[in-house]
Each structure stands twice: as structure tokens, then as C-alpha cells.
Design a protein that fits this description.
There is one protein chain. The protein has 8 helices and 16 strands. By secondary structure, the chain is α/β, with parallel strands linked by helices. It has 2 domains: about 120 residues, Rossmann fold (3-Layer(aba) Sandwich), CATH 3.40.50; about 150 residues, 2-Layer Sandwich (Dihydrodipicolinate Reductase, domain 2), CATH 3.30.360.10. The strands form 3 sheets. Strands 10-11-12-7-13-14-15-16 form an 8-stranded mixed β-sheet, with helices on one face. The chain has a 6-stranded parallel β-sheet with strand order 3-2-1-4-5-6, sandwiched between helices. It is globular and about 60 Å long. The structure holds nicotinamide-adenine-dinucleotide.
Length: about 325
């Protein structure tokens, strides 16, 4: 599969590294509003000043949108309206009406549409999914979950440089937390109980903190869980705690580690990090899955639709 990149910023750097580690995918073209970004591309990748021209001329099979979140909708729509396939960095867009318009545009043209949910491919998430599938621990039924995705993007009353390109704590990290959970709980079985957002009107972001409380039925029992996103804690802290009948599993998404506490036993610690940066590991998973879906003529629109429903429902409380 050949792809082209739109937006050569921080995340694109990790994406380009992951592409070099993933079989079956190659970066051929790239575009950024800032032509100085061409210097960050490998020699084999052609830089284009004009997106429209790249969409017309490129031999790429799909176009990866890695621009600031506020531009995803417009650029993804431009890709689709050019009859080309879009892969969009999460979140796909920032409202339900934008989501509906993108899905309609892609379906009308019978084009697949992919969302890159990189946190779902965390090594700790893969690891716990494998333990569940192999039934390696007897934890019993899931009783609830609590997920926190915090970044130090609001310090001393101001947004930090890390917030550049992001829409807001909930809009960006809510999509991250929900996509990791979706590997463990069917998002189509979840519904919103409550959403609580902290909005500071003087700041150029949608919210600095956001919380979504969800419920779903597991083994005939109503289960509750919450996803908390926060830019005000002053730290990079990303953890999901899953409470089961016979113990607790804590997935540390920032450190690529897992803690397992079985009732009455010592905690077991699993360090799952590799020599590659965490985000490179994530995008290796994204691209491996993307090439497999593309080869089968599939996309992840249904998953993306379910996750964005849960995300936007919390925003609209
Ligand atoms: N930085 C991270 O850790 C991270 C992690 C995961 C996902 N993301 C997501 O990736 C996306 C990009 O984030 P980033 O941190 O790489 O941002 P960034 O600001 O570092 O890079 C964005 C790039 O897009 C270019 N750009 C802006 N508007 C454009 C347009 N209309 N057309 C073409 N190019 C344009 C900019 O010149 C810049 O080079 C965001 O949606 C963000 O939520 C970022």
C-alpha cells in the first residue's frame, strides 16, 4: 500500500518512523502548508506545495491527514471529494454533524474511510487483550473501569506548546481513552450516563478537562466506567484500571506497563516497553492493521462511528 501524508508535524515524525518498520506500506508523497517541512522528509518522498495538485497527481492509495484537529474535517472532506481514500488522525472531526457529513460523503462515493486510533495499539492494551483471549488469569467478570488521560498542556493559567494542534482535553484524549477501551469492551454496547467538561472561554481550546461516564451490560450486570481527560494536572499520566471480580488490572499507557493484582496475591508488574518510542509502537500497530483492512477491502468506519458517538454525546451534556 502506498500512502501520502498531509501535515508534517510532531505526530507525522512518529508515523514516518513506524512506516519504515511496517511491511507492506510505503510513504510516497507529502504536503504541508509550511514548505520548510519538506526538509523533514526522507529523500524518497516527494513534497507538494499544493494539496489539490497532490490529490490529482499522486499514485498513493490513501492520504493520511495529520494536521491540527480543527482542520481534520475540511481536509478529509477535500480528500474524499477528490475521490481519494482518507486516513484521518483521531479524532476524525469535532462534532456529530461533521462526522455524519464525512460518512455520507465517503459512502456516496463507495470509498473506505479510516481513523487512526493509535492508543488502541498500545503494547499494554495488546498484552491484556492476549491474556484475556488465552484465559491466562482467572479474574472473573468485569465490574467497572476508570481511565485517565492527562497531559501537561495547561500550566500557570496558560496553554503550553503541547496543546498546539489539539482541539481540547476531551476532544483529543477522550477519543484516545475510548479507543483503548474498545479493545476490551464493545463500544456499541456502551451508552453515556453523564459528561462533564471544564471550559475556560479565554483559552484557545475547547476544554481543559472532560469526563465521560458510561454504562454497559456485562454478564447480566450493569457495569459503569469513566474516562477522565485532563490538561491541568501538570503531568503525562495515562492509565486504565479495570476492576474484575477477582482482582484489578492497571494498564499504564504512558509507560507501556501493566500491573495485575489478583485477590490475596502480590502485585505482578509487566514491563512491555521496547527500544522504540511508545508512539512508534502505536503507529506500527495502526499501519499493520490499516494494510490488512485495505487488502481485504475493509475499513474501521463502524468502530469510528461508535467511538465518536460516545465522544460527542459527552460533549453535548
Ligand atoms: N503530538 C502528539 O503527541 C499527538 C499524538 C497523537 C495524535 N496527535 C494528533 O495529530 C494531529 C497533529 O498533531 P501534531 O502534534 O503533529 O501537530 P503539529 O502542529 O506538530 O503539526 C501539524 C502540521 O500540520 C501543518 N498544517 C496545519 N494546517 C494545515 C493545512 N490546512 N494543510 C496542510 N498542513 C497543515 C502544520 O504546518 C504542521 O506542520 C492532531 O490531530 C493531534 O491531535 C498528536
Amino acid at each position: 500500500m502506498q500512502i501520502a501524508l498531509i501535515g508534517i508535524g510532531k505526530i507525522a515524525n512518529y508515523q514516518m518512523q513506524a512506516i519504515t518498520h511496517t511491511e507492506g506500506i510505503k510513504l510516497v508523497d507529502a504536503h504541508d502548508l509550511d514548505s520548510n517541512k519538506a526538509e523533514e522528509l526522507p529523500g524518497s518522498v516527494q513534497f507538494h506545495n499544493n494539496l489539490d495538485k497532490m490529490l490529482k497527481k499522486s499514485n498513493a492509495d490513501a492520504f493520511l491527514v495529520s494536521t491540527p484537529t480543527s482542520t481534520h474535517f475540511e481536509i478529509a472532506m477535500q480528500v474524499i471529494e477528490s475521490d481519494r481514500i482518507a486516513i484521518v488522525e483521531k479524532p476524525l472531526c469535532t462534532s456529530q454533524s461533521e462526522m455524519d457529513a464525512l460518512l455520507t460523503a465517503a459512502r456516496t462515493r463507495k470509498l473506505p474511510l479510516y481513523t487512526a486510533f493509535h492508543p488502541a495499539y498500545g503494547r499494554e492494551v495488546d498484552w491484556w487483550r492476549e491474556q484475556i483471549d488465552a484465559q491466562n488469569f482467572e479474574l472473573g467478570a468485569l465490574l467497572g473501569f476508570e481511565s485517565c488521560f492527562a497531559d501537561p498542556y495547561y500550566i500557570d493559567g496558560k496553554l503550553t506548546l503541547g496543546a498546539v494542534g489539539k482541539a481540547g482535553a476531551w476532544t483529543d484524549s477522550g477519543a484516545s481513552g475510548l479507543s483503548a477501551l474498545a479493545r476490551l469492551v464493545d463500544p456499541e454496547s456502551m451508552s453515556l450516563v453523564d459528561g462533564r467538561m471544564t471550559v475556560i472561554p479565554s483559552l484557545n481550546c475547547a476544554q481543559v478537562q472532560g469526563l465521560g461516564i458510561y454504562r454497559f451490560v456485562e454478564n447480566n450486570r450493569m457495569v459503569y466506567g469513566m474516562v477522565d481527560t485532563n490538561w491541568t494536572l501538570g503531568k503525562n499520566y495515562k492509565t486504565t484500571r479495570l476492576r474484575y471480580e477477582n482482582g484489578i488490572v492497571e494498564l499504564d499507557h504512558a509507560k507501556e506497563a501493566a500491573h495485575l493484582v489478583l485477590e490475596g496475591q502480590e502485585a505482578l508488574i509487566f514491563n512491555l516497553a521496547t527500544d522504540k518510542p511508545r508512539l512508534v509502537n502505536h503507529y506500527c500497530g495502526v499501519f499493520a492493521d490499516l494494510t490488512a483492512m485495505y487488502a481485504k477491502g475493509e475499513d474501521n468506519t463502524r468502530l469510528s462511528e461508535a467511538l465518536h458517538h460516545l465522544l460527542f454525546d459527552a460533549l453535548n451534556c
